[in-house]
Structures are given as C-alpha cells and as structure tokens.
Design goal:
Layout lengths: L2 H18 L3 E6 L4 H17 L4 E6 L4 H6 L7 E6 L2 E7 L4 H11 L2
Parallel strand pairs: 1-2
Antiparallel strand pairs: 1-3, 3-4
InterPro entries: Thioredoxin, Thioredoxin-like_sf, Thioredoxin_CS, Thioredoxin_domain
Protein name: Thioredoxin
GO molecular function: protein-disulfide reductase activity
Length: 109
C-alpha cells in the first residue's frame, strides 16, 4: 500500500468512525501547532481516562484535509464530541483535562 493509499484508507476509517460510532471525541490537530503539542500529554491522559467509555480519535488536519474541511475546522486544536455522527460539543484551543471530562459528562450521564 502506498502512502497515498494509506492516507485515503485512514481518512475513510476516521470518517466512518465519526459518522457512526457511539461516543467519539475527535481532536483535529496539526504537527506544527504549538498548542497541539502542549495538548498532547493531556490528550494521552484523557485517552486513558476514557478507555471503555468513549474513543479518542486524533486527526491530523494536514494529512486528513478532506475531513478537516468536512467539519469546517478553522483552528487547531479543535475538539468535537460525537455521538453517532451528531456533533454534541465542540471547542477550539488548549483545554484542561477537567474541561474535556466535563464535556463528556454533560452529555453522557
């Protein structure tokens, strides 16, 4: 599989996930974005915390630009909470672990 095919396959898989999966928190990020780099340890921690509760999907806006366009991502990082394709909550910028947790708790009780 070429890099291009891999990229298309990953993008298709993520698109499918965001559209159909039960609970997903997507982080749209960019490798060159300092805010995203600072968020990385928080996102890792959040992933561990949410295991079995919801899936955390990280989407590189440069690699998966079609997906970023589809969800009108204007700044990175942007976090979107999905349930079966519906956007329940969305926020951009650096967020605390507590804020991410609270977003999930607000909708998933």
């Amino acid at each position: 599989m070429s890099m291009k095919e891999k990229k298309i396959a990953r993008e298709a898989r993520n698109k499918e996930k965001l559209a159909n999966d039960d609970w997903v928190m997507a982080e749209f990020y960019a490798t060159w974005c300092p805010h995203c780099r600072r968020m990385q340890p928080v996102v890792e921690e959040f992933k561990k915390l949410m295991e079995g509760t919801l899936e955390v999907v990280q989407i590189d806006v440069d690699q998966e630009d079609a997906l970023a366009d589809f969800y009108t991502i204007e700044g990175t990082p942007t976090f979107i909470l999905f349930r079966k394709g519906e956007q329940l909550w969305r926020q951009s910028g650096e967020l605390s672990l507590e804020r991410l947790e609270r977003a999930v708790k607000e909708f998933k009780s």
